[in-house]
Write a structure and sequence with these properties.
Blueprint lengths: L6 H12 L13 H6 L6 H12 L6 H9 L6 H5 L6 H14 L7 H13 L5 H22 L4 H8 L15 E5 L5 H4 L1 H13 L2 E4 L9 H4 L4 H14 L8 E3 L2 H7 L10 E3 H8 L13 E4 L3 H8 L3 H6 L6 E2 L15 H4 L1 H18 L3 E3 L3 H13 L6 E2 L1 H8 L7
Parallel strand pairs: 1-2, 1-3, 3-4, 5-6, 5-7, 7-8
Helix pairs in contact: 1-3, 1-6, 3-6, 9-20, 11-21, 19-20
Bound molecules: iron/sulfur cluster (SF4) (2 copies).
The site of one iron/sulfur cluster has 14 residues, from helix 2, helix 3 and helix 5.
Length: about 400
């Protein structure tokens, strides 16, 4: 049964959280949409004011408010900058939820709701059949949908056609057990990372449990204002991963990870980023890596900024590959514009926000760009491809797995 929260309760929570904003505007300088448009409605402070109007039933123009909230990238840069600790993303989630409760729904909402519900309800064991159907339909998909969404089909196809399968073998010597969170659309657009992550963990001696009843993390629904669907995802995942167990649950897409780590249940503490787990738990002295005389640029997804960027986790992991040159990548501390599904919903804005990053890559000319979030990876790869730059954008774990000397069984 969907867990539906009454509108009055949502409005009360919006008011409570939004009232903590003192309207100082210190967050605006960090906000990519405000920097792009210099419009107060496109700033965190402006969006909080719109949220307060929704909470107080002061909705005059449903479309206008929804439009400004839709443009938010959920990058969280404003939360990092805010001295008052305002929970901005929670306010936007709740406000979109309140707007979705409104009888004045946008015409497109029904289609969106169907799509969000469809993806969020898919269990792990339903993906192989769906992928087979998707492959049959991919000519239509490429011709109409991708063109409409301004996504380069070659970029998506490259990801889609990577025939990576997850290996279900047990390790030669068991070092312990781990559960794997696979995600939803990563089955379609990032099979390579899933396969490489599980292969690396197995090679290092871990027995992997991939529960068949797990579903999407819920971020897709939550950030589109469908809290009932998001709550359902949390409930199903709590059952699928059996809350009485204590083994870590590894995720490889940081966008999903930040949603999983915000679950209300005890489960949230068990989710661990594959990069963090690999750095902290795997004994690199027992592994050999083949040299790779290439230059790489590290893209830091917004969802990683607060967690692992400061500890230089990715750099530490990749330093294990002899000969790899890590280029200076300060530019990458800003949002790439992907913003979960934002690059699909607002491709023009997303492309403008991406522009400085693409220009930076073009100046540095690396052999690889690494990113731990697949929507960022697709968005950056599309930008590079539009400039005729054939630079692979890969997950750091894929690069490690590619260079690992597999003859040395753990
Ligand atoms: S989450 Fe990012 S895009 Fe949204 S208001 Fe904050 S800084 Fe701006
Ligand atoms: S969200 Fe924080 S930084 Fe931004 S205006 Fe409000 S109090 Fe100031």
């Amino acid at each position: 049964m969907p867990l539906i929260v009454p509108i009055e309760k949502i409005q009360r929570e919006i008011s409570l959280l939004a009232d903590q904003c003192v309207k100082c505007g210190l967050c605006s300088a960090t906000c990519p949409t405000y920097k792009l448009r210099a419009d107060e409605n496109e700033s965190p402070r402006g969006r909080i004011a719109l949220a307060q109007a929704v909470a107080g039933n002061g909705i005059q123009s449903f479309d206008r408010i929804k439009h400004h909230l839709d443009n938010c990238l959920y990058c969280g840069q404003c939360e990092t900058a805010c001295p008052s600790g305002v929970k901005y993303t929670r306010i936007v989630d709740l406000t979109l939820d309140a707007l979705n409760h409104s009888s004045n729904r946008l015409k497109t909402s029904k289609l969106e709701l169907w799509g969000v519900r469809f993806i969020s309800n898919r269990t792990e064991n339903s993906w192989p059949k769906l992928i087979r159907t998707w492959k049959l339909l991919s000519p239509i998909f490429n011709k109409y949908l991708l063109r409409k969404l301004s996504i380069k089909s070659s970029t998506v196809n490259k990801k889609f056609n990577e025939q990576a399968t997850i290996d279900h073998q047990s390790p030669v010597i068991s070092k312990g057990s781990l559960s794997i969170f696979t995600g939803c659309t990563s089955h379609i657009f990032d099979q390579r990372t899933l396969a490489d992550s599980t292969a690396l963990l197995r090679h290092c001696g871990y027995e992997l449990n991939i529960p068949e009843q797990q579903v999407c993390c819920g971020a897709l629904a939550k950030h589109r204002g469908y809290s009932d669907i998001a709550n359902n995802c949390e409930m199903k995942n709590t059952q699928a991963f059996d809350d009485s167990m204590t083994v870590p649950i590894i995720f490889s897409a940081t966008g999903c990870g930040s949603a999983l780590q915000q679950y209300d249940s005890q489960l949230s503490r068990r989710f661990v980023d594959i990069n963090v787990f690999t750095k902290e738990e795997i004994d690199f002295k027992t592994l050999n890596f083949k040299p790779l005389s290439k230059k790489i640029l590290i893209h830091t997804p917004c969802s990683q900024q607060k967690s692992i960027a400061k500890s230089k986790t990715i750099e530490t992991l990749l330093f294990n590959i002899p000969g790899l040159e890590i280029l200076q990548s300060d530019q990458y501390s800003s949002c790439c514009g992907a913003g979960g599904t934002h690059f699909v919903r607002s491709p023009d804005t997303a492309a403008k926000i991406r522009e400085p990053l693409v220009n930076h890559v073009m100046k540095q000319v690396p052999d690889y760009v690494v990113s731990s979030n697949y929507s960022c990876a697709i968005h950056i790869a599309t930008g590079l491809s539009e400039k005729n730059m054939d630079i692979p954008v890969v997950h750091p774990i894929s690069l490690l797995w590619q260079q690992l000397d597999k003859s040395n069984i753990y």
